[in-house]
Amino acid sequence: MEQETYVIKFSIYAAVDGGLDGLARAIHVVRKAPVQFHDMAVIDSGKTKEITLRVSGKKKDIDWLAKKLEKVVEVLEVKVQAMPTEVSLMILHQ
Amino acid sequence: MHVADVLLESMEREGLLTVFGIPGSANLGLYEKIPDHKVNVILMRHEQGAAHAADAFGRVKRNVPGVAFATSGPGATNLVTGLANAYMDSAPMIAITGQVPMAVMGRDAFQETDVVGVTMPITKHSFLVRDPEHITWAIRAAKVISITNRPGPVLVDIPRDFWKVDVDFYWPSDEELLREWIPGYDPNPPKPSPDLIMKAAKIVVQAENPVILAGGGVWWSGATPEVLKLAEVLMAPIVTTLMGKNAIPADHPLYLGHAGMHGRPEANYALYNADVVIAIGTRFSDRTVGNFEEFKKGKKIIHIDIDKSEVGKNIEPDVGIVGDAREAVKMLREYIVDALNFKRDMEIPLIKKAKEFGEQAWEVLLRERGRGMKPWKVLKIVREEMPRDSIVTTGVGGHQMWAALHYPVYKPGTYLTSGGLGTMGYGFPAAIGAKAAAPDKPVLDIDGDGSFLMTSQNLATVKQYNLNVGVLIFDNGSLQLIRQWQDLFFGHRRVGENLAYLPDFVKLANSFGIEGVRPESYDEMRKAIRRVAQGEALVIDYIVDPDIMVLPMIAPGKVIAPENIILTPEQAAGIVV
């Protein structure tokens, strides 16, 4: 299957502004990526925010998106995880 | 200490002493304090020009970003094109904008714009300073981010009610800055992987026709000597991107010119026919290779770039090496020479073939065509008269492509052009910025009539600050490349390309107190260029026949294959884009 669904987890360090600018910057990166966006969750943990994205696309495009996210100054760490095929298919059908 | 003083003191400490800008109500509190500091402010006549001048200043200095000041609202939004331009070409600059007071922010106050929000996708980073105590941190971070790794523009937005707030001056250490403010940012370039260097070296030594493709990153990295040494070990040709033209001395015997849509035929021939391409500091722009899939066929790609998101973005390499170009190329050469004991004595056969192809193409391209002085002959005069280390900037359009084709760059760092964004109006304010960065060097802006007109109001800045730059205007009364595309690919339907009612550029210059000339012979042109070479501010109105098309050309979307190179307008018949 060419299109697969992935979870991208990353954290944003909010030095001074509550982290919204960093989050907005990351969203700008995601919206230009050649992937299909499904949903996003943001959890506040003090000075950092933990973000979980679900996106579908080709593996190389997902990897590219992860690299672009790593370039955002506030972003500390990016992890990419493939979703199990059954879940992936379910999300894509939805 | 007032915040305005803190900001200016911080700029002094960071060596940010040259500013291009325009005052407005949101930064008057800052301007008020300028006379008490060493920061030198140059009044531009439009903020777009301030941004381009700051961008060019950073391109020339490389480790000192240019700075642009603007007020809130329209002042800030007028910077946007310049920021995008710097972002696309990886030029280090810092924009410092005044913002409406914190108390009214978000309420559509007079001259309020969320410039941090507006510029997020076109800056490397941006800060809205929300606490007067944070000024030193923001300026320190802005400089570090703008010049390290892949350089780029950074914007710092400061509410105007901060300027007169008293704060203690606190100068964070490098460690504090990185730990407390930007822990996600590593200013050190990634180390190239020795395993990947080894893999790449083995591919390179087995190649029969390797070609080096040098991009703008070679200049930013200071990798020019290493790239030349690698080429000499391999006896392989160097071709460049448009931005890479600024990085490789054109008189090096292995240099074949720049490749791409309006690339030199010999360069396109070599790049297309290579069996291995060693691409250094380039993003493989569509304007360089034409068609990614077609270009990749039959060749191996080794891609070296400091930005890991560029590796594999447009073309999937066989080996992708993330790291600083200078270090990676040095490691690659050392492995080739020391570990693999490889050094070629003779030029690879592709060079001869490429040069033969080029000679045939140029025989067609340089045939007499059109009326008046020919662009390639005028540019030959420019090169002969301007000193080797003089700086040339360009606008965007036909003249830019003529200059790319016929103005050889001998000294890296002396050719500033808007490559990624393609911003008309860049050349003239960029020349002003370059002159401020290198006051001892002659500076010439090679511009178009349409392009120059977009930022020509900065003639006043040239006069006011004795920033003597020359302008050579390719004046053909039209938007040349638009006209050419319409003629070649859009059924000859010329719409919106006719620059009717252009000003008399000589009189326009005179009205700003600057001399202008309109040469009518090559001799007169030479005399005019010589005046610029001697440091005079001069506008040269060069009348060009609009029917002289900028050729060679490859139609957009077509790969840079020799058979796709258009040498005459007739060859473009039937091409659909």
TrEMBL record, chain B:
Cofactor mode of binding and number, as noted: Binds 1 Mg(2+) ion per subunit.
EC number(s) stated in the UniProt entry for this protein: 2.2.1.6
Thiamine pyrophosphate enzyme TPP-binding domain: residues covered: 395-539
Cofactor(s) needed: Mg(2+); thiamine diphosphate
EC top class named in words: transferase
PROSITE patterns, per the entry: TPP_ENZYMES (PS00187)
InterPro entries: Acetolactate_synth_lsu, AHAS_TPP, DHS-like_NAD/FAD-binding_dom, THDP-binding, Thiamin_PyroP_enz_cen_dom, Thiamin_PyroP_enz_TPP-bd_dom, TPP-bd_CS, TPP_enz
GO molecular function: 2-oxobutyrate synthase activity; acetolactate synthase activity; flavin adenine dinucleotide binding; magnesium ion binding; pyruvate synthase activity; thiamine pyrophosphate binding
Chain ranges of the Thiamine pyrophosphate enzyme N-terminal TPP-binding domain: 1-116
One of the GO BP terms on file: L-valine biosynthetic process
SUPFAM superfamilies found in the cross-reference section: DHS-like NAD/FAD-binding domain (SSF52467), Thiamin diphosphate-binding fold (THDP-binding) (SSF52518)
Keyword Metal-binding: yes
Stretches assigned to the Thiamine pyrophosphate enzyme central domain: 198-332
Subunit description: Heterodimer composed of an alpha and a beta subunit.
Family: Belongs to the TPP enzyme family.
Entry protein name: Acetolactate synthase
Organism per entry: Ignicoccus pacificus DSM 13166
